[in-house]
Design brief:
By secondary structure, the chain is α/β, with parallel strands linked by helices. It is built from 15 helices and 18 strands. It has one domain: Metal-dependent hydrolases (TIM Barrel). Strand 9, helix 4 and strand 10 form a beta-alpha-beta unit.
Length: 440
């Protein structure tokens, strides 16, 4: 493995508190030195002047679609998309076919990963058998097979007794329960946020109470059991408050937010034209909320209440979104726009740079205790894996979904100018992406 020197960038490592101009030297797949004017003799050099050099980004929540839904995406295409977006580690959600609800299913996934993945992929096991919400999976098998968490993402564990057992058993195994917090009896099968925009468009909406009631229940079960609870894609101001209060009580609760919910509101469904657009590319679950909610999410990241920015990358085949809004599947393809989206928010002054990078590196690692699986991940300390993301924060580019590596073109950001471009990505000491090869 060659020696690699990333030279002359602004090195920011939230885990160690480092923020200084300097170099990063990678040897034998690991960080060997960080500092000024490091010796580059015999090394491959990546010039990072004017760029931010950060630990490789970690995504706790991505839908890679394989196995079972290769028309939407494959491990090869979706991990290439993650790579171009600056991510070096991705946690794969379990809504595949078969669902990873047993050791053989997880082992089969990991064999595919070893063959095709462009970044490190860590499996999230299914909380219940086939994600049906009726019977717990063999959680001890999942832990031994290498799952970093369990989740039925896309479906909540609606039974309180079953969720209690999941938290109890997972906690004993050192696993986090990552929950899609939704109360099915309240969401009314809504296709967007319930509010003024849904009324104007004549679409059934999901009230904020569908999320917040589920968060409140799960926090109480977390306290009852002592199990670790991770609240996925929080979208509401009240949800952020519930998480903050849980943390103040010392409960083992963490949460994440998506770039889409930080950047967009439910107005994206209607579009900017006088005639409503009913834009299916803006249909996501949980739905885009109000500006008040968006501002609360931004404040939650800046305050550290929200632990991680996770993409919830959800590619779909183009024809699947070309239908009536109510019939379209939920999901936004955003692996390749995520970092630029939040970088644009930093440039606007809505997000703080340090808090944002923490939520993309150290925060997700701590939320899922990923250092148990990959020691040193999420940092630029000596001995850590040679995972590095180089970002040109001033560079502007226009989103063109036809040039995505992802099979999913379903983004409401098409044609929008963003600020911040990934210049280089190093995974395990190997330079796997450079801007010259980018296609976004």
């Amino acid at each position: 493995m060659s020696t690699l020197l990333i030279r002359g960038g602004r090195v920011i490592d939230p885990a160690s508190g480092r923020d200084e101009r300097g170099d990063v030297l990678i040897e034998n797949g690991h960080i060997s030195a960080v500092g000024g004017s490091l010796d580059a003799t015999g090394a491959e050099v990546v010039e990072a002047g004017g760029c931010i050099v950060a630990p490789g980004l970690v995504d706790l929540h991505a839908h890679l679609r394989e196995p079972g839904f290769e028309q939407k995406g494959t491990l090869a295409t979706e991990t290439e998309a993650a790579l171009r977006g600056g991510f070096t580690t991705v946690c794969a959600m379990p809504n595949t076919d078969p669902a990873p609800d047993s050791a053989p299913a997880v082992e089969g996934l990991l064999k595919r990963v070893a063959q095709d993945a462009r970044v490190r992929v860590l499996p999230v096991g299914s909380t219940t058998v086939n994600r049906a919400g009726e019977q717990l999976s063999a959680l001890s098998e999942l832990a031994e097979a290498g799952c970093v968490a369990i989740s039925d993402d896309g479906s909540p564990v609606s039974g309180g007794g079953l969720m209690r057992h999941a938290l109890t058993l997972a906690g004993a195994l050192g696993l986090v329960v990552a929950e899609h917090c939704d109360e099915p009896s309240l969401n009314g099968n809504g296709s967007m946020h319930e509010g003024a925009v849904s009324e104007r468009l004549g679409l059934a909406g999901q009230p904020t109470a569908a999320e917040t009631a589920a968060i409140a229940r799960n926090v109480e079960l977390c306290e009852l059991t002592g199990g670790r609870l991770h609240i996925m894609h929080v979208t509401t101001a009240t949800g952020v408050d519930l998480v903050a209060h849980a943390k103040e009580r010392g409960l083992p609760v963490t949460c994440e937010v998506t770039p889409s919910h930080l950047f967009l509101t439910d107005e994206a469904v209607a579009g900017s034209d006088p005639t409503p657009a009913y834009d299916t590319s803006a249909k996501v679950n949980p739905p885009l909320r109000t500006e008040r909610d968006r501002l609360a999410l931004l404040a939650g990241v800046n305050a550290g209440v929200i632990d991680a920015i996770a993409t919830d990358h959800a590619p779909h085949a183009p024809e699947e979104k070309q239908c009536e809004f109510d019939q379209a599947p939920f999901g936004i393809s955003c692996a390749e726009t995520a970092l630029a989206t939040v970088a644009t928010l930093v440039e606007r002054g809505e997000l703080e740079l340090g808090a944002t990078l923490r939520a993309l590196t150290q925060g997700p690692v701590e939320a899922f205790s990923l250092e148990r699986h990959v020691p040193g991940i999420g940092t630029l300390t000596v001995g850590a894996p040679g995972d590095v993301t180089v970002l040109a924060p001033e560079e502007r580019w226009t989103v063109d979904p036809l040039r995505f590596a992802s099979k999913g073109r379903n983004t409401p950001l098409a044609g929008l100018e963003l600020r911040g471009r990934v210049r280089a990505v190093v995974v395990g000491g190997e330079l796997r992406h450079a801007a010259e090869a980018a296609h976004v």
